[in-house]
Each structure stands twice: as structure tokens, then as C-alpha cells.
Amino acid sequence: MKLNLLLLSFASILLFSFQAKAEQLDYNSRSIPQKQEIQAPKLEKLLNNQKKDFQTKPIDSSAFAGVVPLGKEMSGLDSQVKALMTRYKSLTPGMFFLDLQTGNYLDINAEKVFPAASTIKFPVLIALFEEVDAGRIKLDETLVMRRNLMTGGSGTMQYQRAGTKLSVLKTATKMITISDNTATNMIIDRLGGKAKLNERFQSWGLQKTVIRNMLGDFKGTNTTTAKDLVKLSALIDNHKLISDNSRFQALDIMRNVSNKKLLCAGLGSGAIIAHKTGTLGVLIGDAGIIEMPSGKRYLAGIFVRRNFNDSRARDFIRQVSQMVYQYLDQPTLTQLP
């Protein structure tokens, strides 16, 4: 009798425990989805907010490069530069400057085709970072300097042994900062060659930017225009083509170009320029993004065809750069259209 009572009590305890556990499981099964219903929309919104502008914002076909609404031609500046040109009649310039605040611009032979020289390394750099963003190239991967990619002209890698290994990032940095031709060939090769790059340039709207030969292109067969390179700067400045992280890295490299004798030489104290220069015996050029100490920004592209090694071309670019800088540095109300 006592044994039966004991067994009955034990069974009651077990039944009560199972019921309590079932209630707890039922509560948890109801509460977990409720938490997911609250958190999932927040997570999705967060991820959407983190999408890059270069992926989500459409390009405006009516604006310059699809991103900068054009204002008026800066006629006051145009007359100043053309007066300067009369003092340098042996030079043939082409230039485009664009005020990002107003959309006002200076266009003198901006679509004239020139040998690109080393300014071609600017679009090559952006193409590299596009591939990095796509996950097809890593900045820390190793490139091997093959003999068929080694060349003379600018840069120091030509003096190293074939088989030298460098990271993609270090190679790209040398391509821009010291304008290394061998480094450029290594990057072009890693990107699949000239034809693939030319297709990419066309897709960006750079209609006259073409790589016909590997570096060094001493005969000037690779071509571009001042307007094409300013288009590329406009796209990068407006967060197109590459991610914000890649944009930061690319511009940081371009702020450390060693040649300071062209656009840089005409800028005011405290100005910052991310740019790429180019030099051949018969031509010099420079293109990039300039930020004044006030925060005002503008884009620049300029080429000058010259007699062989004529140093006056460099002086001309410096003076044009100074004119543009001083013109744009005026208070907005005093600027003439």
C-alpha cells in the first residue's frame, strides 16, 4: 500500500515537471520568432544603408560624366588663359577645368586628342581597384616581374632582376608615385591586357582614351584628352566605379605623386591635389582633383604639345594652374561667369 502511494507521488512529480518543461519550450518557441521579426527588418535596413553609392545611385545622362550638372563657361578665366596663350605660340594646349561647387567650367581644346604619356596610369589604377572591389584581385597578392614586362623610361624597377616579386599594392603605388613603366606593364598584364582595359575605358565614357602599346610608349601612340581624364575624376569624386574604401586608397596614392612641377606648382598654400602627370619629349600633361583650404574642390586636366623638351610648356601649365586657382579662390559673388 505504501509502495503504491510512493509510486503515485513519484509519477505526479514527473508529470508536473514535463508540463512545466513543455510550457517553457512553448514560450521559447513563441518568443524566438518574435525576436527575429523585430531584428530582421533592422538588419536588412542596415545592410541596405551600407550599400555603396557607386552601386546604387543612377547616372544622370544630362550631366557632365553623368554626375556633375554643368553651369556656365568661365568666360573671364577663358580670356585670361587665351591672353597667356599668345605669349606661348609655339605650344599647343588642351585643357578642361570644372568647379564642382557651381558646375562652371573652362574648356579650351578639351576634346583634342593628345598622347597620354603617363597620365594613362590614372585610368589603369581605377580599373585595378574595380577588380579589387569585384574580388577578382587582392591587393596583397604577389606579382612576378617578368622580363617581357620590363622596360626603360621612368621608374626604378627596370634596374631590378627579372623574377622580382612585389604585392599588387606596392606595384600600383610605384606605377603612380614614381610613374614606373615596368610596374604599369605588370598591372596592365594582371588586368588582362590592353584590349580589356580599352573596353573598360569605353564603358566609363572615355571615348578617346586608348592603350595601343605597353609602356614605355615613347612614340605617344596611347591617347586621351583633357576632358576624358576630367570625366574620370568626376566619376571618382562622385563615388562611382569603385567603392569608398578603394576610392580612399586610390586618391591617397595619387596625392603622393613625386612630380610637383606642373599643376601642383600653381596651387596656393594648403591646397591638396590627387593627380597623375605625364611627360614625353614632345608633350607634358597633368590631371586630377584639387581641394582648396576652404574646402572648395575642382577638377583639372591639361595637356601641352611642345617642341622637344621645351621647358616653357612646364611654365605654361604652372601659370594656367595659378590663374585657375586664383580665379576660383575668389568669393563666389565676385566671380564673373
TrEMBL record:
Record keywords: Hydrolase, Signal
InterPro entries: Beta-lactam/transpept-like (IPR012338), Beta-lactam_cat (IPR045155), Beta-lactam_class-A (IPR000871)
SUPFAM superfamilies attached to this UniProt entry: beta-lactamase/transpeptidase-like
Residue span, Beta-lactamase class A catalytic domain: 94-304
Signal peptide: 1-22
An individual GO BP term: response to antibiotic
Pfam family, any one: Beta-lactamase2
Keyword Hydrolase belongs to the record: yes
A GO MF term: beta-lactamase activity
UniProt-recorded name of the protein: Class A beta-lactamase-related serine hydrolase
Provenance organism: Cyanomargarita calcarea GSE-NOS-MK-12-04C
